[in-house]
Amino acid sequence: MAVEVYLIFNGNCREAVTFYEQVFNTDKAEIMTFGDSPSDPSYPLPEEAKNLVMHTRLSILGSTVMFSDTFPGSPFTIGNNVTLAVVTDDEAQLRQAFEKLKEGGKVTMELQETFWSKCYGSLTDKFGIEWQFSHEEKAKSEN
């Protein structure tokens, strides 16, 4: 299981990622936009969201750093735009940690299957720390 930093931007994520790629001489990031996600007629995607970064990551000096833009209309506060991401292939461990951290906290998204993870959820714990949880299968070369 890993705990990784997740940085949130207010519409300038792509610019920041390009900057960090150059600063740290990393491989070019694969960027998933909100427009890349499957459409849901119940929740039409606003035009201004389509090209915003939904998720990307860079390997910076051996650490994975993840990035996204806020969704239009979601609150954004400089200083509170860092979350911790728990990424593991152990779904039971992920669920156990999520259940314990949500005690006294506020769940943003209950653990559920998404198009990018078989088990994803997010919450703010009782101390005000924002967490994201994501089940990620090990790469075949790691098994």
From TrEMBL:
Source superkingdom: Bacteria
Chain ranges passing through the membrane: none
Matches recorded under SUPFAM superfamilies: Glyoxalase/Bleomycin resistance protein/Dihydroxybiphenyl dioxygenase
Domain (PhnB-like) ranges: 5-133
Pfam families xrefs: 3-dmu-9_3-mt
CDD domains: PhnB_like (cd06588)
Gene3D superfamilies in UniProt: 2,3-Dihydroxybiphenyl 1,2-Dioxygenase, domain 1
Name by which UniProt lists this protein: VOC family protein
